[in-house]
Amino acid sequence: MKILTAAQTRAADAFTIAQEPISSLDLMERASWALVQWLKQRYSAAVPVFVFCGPGNNGGDGLAAARLLHQDGYDVQVFLIETGQSASADFTQNLQRLPSAIAVNRLQRLEDLPPGLPPQALVLDGLFGSGLSRPLEGLYAQVVTYLNQQPATILSIDIPSGLFADAPTPSGSAVIQADVTLTFERPKLAFLMPHSGGYAGEWHVLPIGLHEDFLNQVESPYQVLLPEAFQTILRPRSKFSHKGTFGHALLVGGSYGKMGAITMSAHAALRAGVGLLTVQVPQSGYSILQTTVPEAMVLTDDHERHLSQFPEDLTKYQCLGIGPGFGQAEDTRLALESLFRQKLPPLVLDADALNLLAADRLLRQQLPPDSILTPHPKEFERLTGPASDDFHRLQLLQNFCSEHACYVILKGAHSCIGTPSGEFYFNTTGNPGMATGGSGDVLTGILTGLRAQGYSPLEACQLGVYLHGLAGDLAAEAVGEDSLIASDLYNYLGAAFLQIRHS
Ligand SMILES: NC(=O)C1=CN([C@@H]2O[C@H](COP(=O)(O)OP(=O)(O)OC[C@H]3O[C@@H](n4cnc5c(N)ncnc54)[C@H](O)[C@@H]3O)[C@@H](O)[C@H]2O)[C@@H](O)CC1
Ligand SMILES: Nc1ncnc2c1ncn2[C@@H]1O[C@H](COP(=O)(O)OP(=O)(O)O)[C@@H](O)[C@H]1O
Ligand SMILES: [K+]
């Protein structure tokens, strides 16, 4: 699903208004109706609703929602922030439509605000939406600070007020800290970024019928991954297939004290459906691998505690995954250096393989095209240098992927896949229970297993991050986020596959 910028959303509105055709007032009514339907399923009419409105169409949505909720028997009060700014036409119309039974409070100074809102109250934040053009100041900023201090639940309409949809919000700006955000038609880019995503709280997308033709033709480099995409990507396993059909993967990693990392990757590659798996570890890892992952074949390095070589014949493998528990010993670095001079199967690189790359520009330049790299933000910074903000980091991601013709999964709450041609795919599965050691090693195993089965690098990245997060979500349903550990991820991978196949 494409993500639209605020400007593209305005264009989508205008296109819909002209082509459907529908008046802009009716489009606002449709958006507010969708919002109220969602809200009624979650909050009973016993919950008092306080609607805070700015002068634009976001405020207009708030007014329309106030009217609809009142019709449904909710106790609604409206607060208009009046700073002398002129109101939008649809705001004015909706103000006129407001039944007189709804109390309208006109706020011109901080002192006009009620001393406090009840904890059971629901605040609808309709101060500003995607039309925000500068940080909030004066009374608007004061209202935001006031609302953020209230014990009430805050539901933001479209986007938390004060948050820029597709540009960095200057630090220190007043921004609503929403509990829930109901956003129209498409999520905002800001919801997916580490520094701004938290303001939106739990967010949901409400379709409001923007014109299909516009949505199909509009160009956006930003997409969110949704399960529908996987119906076509995920391949069936045919009746007469055999283990050779599903590829032979090689995982190389592990060092003394970090053998668990490569063990978890191995389990994950197998659960991702690979036909055959070989794991190369230092000698001290031999018994560990043979006992904990009996399905895998094991090769050992000459060295006892760390890796110093790769197998000579790599032609029989369809994917080579390197990194979990790899270490950064000098021998290991030299082995990686000589590896890059050979003809190689598709690569997945993680953890210390990335740190070695980061420390060696020449090595980086020899990175084979179509490799998949899976850095967390710190590893990414080592590769590209620091980013000044989340949007700059996306720029660095794009530059790195195009310069090295590779795919980078920048891991996080919404892991982002960068591609050589400049697209970004944000993942929508996963939860904070996955912030636990070894989660990334599991992802490496999944990607290696998928790539060995012949999935293209982009397909493997998309399917891999989605399945990994979904396994985390299913595991969290069973054991809770607190107790989730990385091995739960590969143990729930089967359930994640089933969910995708049967959806
Ligand atoms: N397709 C959609 O997504 C639809 C969106 N609608 C609503 O319309 C909203 C966008 O409406 P608008 O474009 O009127 O945007 P806003 O409601 O955000 O208001 C923008 C107005 O506020 C002013 N402004 C911007 N930043 C300011 C600041 N920091 N301090 C003071 N004034 C500031 C602008 O100059 C402009 O006049 C959406 O967020 C959504 O709530 C719906 O009504 C209809 C359909
Ligand atoms: N809050 C979160 N929400 C969703 N996914 C998360 C969250 N925290 C971590 N993850 C996922 O867990 C994995 C952690 O990887 P990484 O940091 O490399 O861990 P490790 O090095 O311990 O294996 C990534 O795939 C990341 O997307
Ligand atoms: K808002």
Automatic annotation (TrEMBL):
Binding-site positions, K(+): N58, D125, S161
SUPFAM superfamilies, sorted: Ribokinase-like, YjeF N-terminal domain-like
InterPro entries in the cross-refs: Carbohydrate_kinase_pred_CS, CARKD, Nnr, Ribokinase-like, YjeF_N_dom, YjeF_N_dom_sf
Catalytic activity: (6R)-NADHX = (6S)-NADHX; (6R)-NADPHX = (6S)-NADPHX; (6S)-NADHX + ADP = AMP + phosphate + NADH + H(+); (6S)-NADPHX + ADP = AMP + phosphate + NADPH + H(+)
CDD domains: YXKO-related (cd01171)
Residue sites binding AMP per the record: K411, G412, A413, H414, S415, G440
Cofactor note: Binds 1 potassium ion per subunit.
Cofactor(s) needed for function: Mg(2+); K(+)
Keyword NADP on entry: yes
Subunit structure: Homotetramer.
Family indicated by similarity: In the N-terminal section; belongs to the NnrE/AIBP family.
UniProt-listed HAMAP family: NADHX_dehydratase (MF_01965), NADHX_epimerase (MF_01966)
Protein name: Bifunctional NAD(P)H-hydrate repair enzyme
Upper classification of the organism: Bacteria, Pseudomonadati, Bacteroidota, Cytophagia, Cytophagales
Gene name as annotated: nnrD
